[in-house]
Amino acid sequence: MAKASRSRELLEFEIAFYEQLLETHPEFLDALMALGEAYTRRGLHEKGLAVDQKLIRLKGRDPIVWYNLACSLSLLKRCDDALEALRRAIELGYDDFDFLGRDPDLSSLRGSPQFRRFLDSLSPSKSS
Fold first, then answer.
1. Which pLDDT score, from 0 to 100, does residue 124 have?
2. CA within 20 to 30 Å of 14's CA: 3, 6, 58, 122, which one?
């Protein structure tokens, strides 16, 4: 129990640190990305989504930013929006399809026929 408590305490410290840093440097991309990840680990999915949306405005050509947005949307069970963000991530160059197929943040999409069709459309035989 003490280890879990310590981990949670460190996560709370991490979140507070990045939030404070971003008060004075609101467009510090590395801090925003770390804060979004920390919010997700803490289960603060709405806050994580807000960070991802800000990152899209600041770094909208980055496929990882779009992938992270898809994860946040999936965690909030906004499946259609998550699929659109995934499509955009791939258009911009995201290509870790193995991870995409097993990422726990995308678990709300797993049962969706749209997600299955989406994954099928990514197969190499269909793109040639």
1. 62
2. 58
Domains of the chain: 2-122 (1.25.40.10)
Q: Which band of pLDDT confidence, cut at 50, 70 and 90, is reported for residue 1? A: low
Please report the sign of the dihedral spanned by the C-alpha atoms of residue 11, residue 35, residue 110, residue 120: negative
Amino acid at 121: S
Burial of 36 (0-12, 13-18, 19+ CB in 10 A): buried
d(CA 103, CA 94): 14
Tokens of 32: 């925003």
Tell me the one-letter amino acid at 85.
Answer: A
DSSP track, 15-38: HHHHHHHHHH-TT-HHHHHHHHHH
Amino acid at 24: T
Q: What are phi and psi of 83, to 5 degrees?
A: -65, -40
Whether 105 contacts 40, CB under 8 Å: yes
Instruction: Kindly state the average pLDDT of the residues 55-66.
Output: 98
